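[Meeting: bench + compute handoff]

Bench side (C.D.) handed over the final construct sequence. Compute side (W.E.) agreed to return the predicted structure before the next meeting so the bench team could plan truncations. Sequence as handed over:
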Amino acid sequence: MPIKYLLFWLLNILVIAISAADQSPKDVIVDVHKVGDKFEVKASYLVPMDLCNAFAFITDYEDARNIKGIAESKIISRTDNKVIVERKAKETVLLFPLEINTTLEYTEMPNRGLNFEQIHGDNKTYKGTWRLEPQGSSTKFVYQSVIEVNSMVPKTVLEYFMKNTIKKRFEAMAARATLKAHAPNPKCA
């Protein structure tokens, strides 16, 4: 292969990498506070995507399997604006295997966000909200939840996980949303 072709391909790869870096999620902010036995989680990130596509992204419950740590996510039922989803998360926290099975009820509010609450599962409590805030040609995703884990894993290990791993999870979600922004949802055409 002549050197000019090799240089051409290397330049193309460099341009693609720089373009992807410019489209990376902005302002991923995560705050975790321990309050008694519960954790309060607040997170937000900005993605270059319109409101309709942002709503399609957060309501694509089965696509959550593409986020690290989510082993399964499937819709059990859907009626009007209520969706029941079974989800299984698997993590290893400081050598402790952690598997959480949960059934969540989501209440959708088109193009504004959703509320969710565990109706069955391994956590003592898990409920929260996603809100979508338009900001120019982007959308800010705002998440809040309260989690009380019911686990044999020592509380100090859980606290370490919550404070150090959750941010990576939201960064992965923001990166996935950014990737999806390049392929608009057909419902939003």
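W.E. noted at the follow-up: The domain at 25-188 is CATH 3.30.530.20 (Alpha-D-Glucose-1,6-Bisphosphate; Chain A, domain 4). C.D. will use this when planning the next construct.
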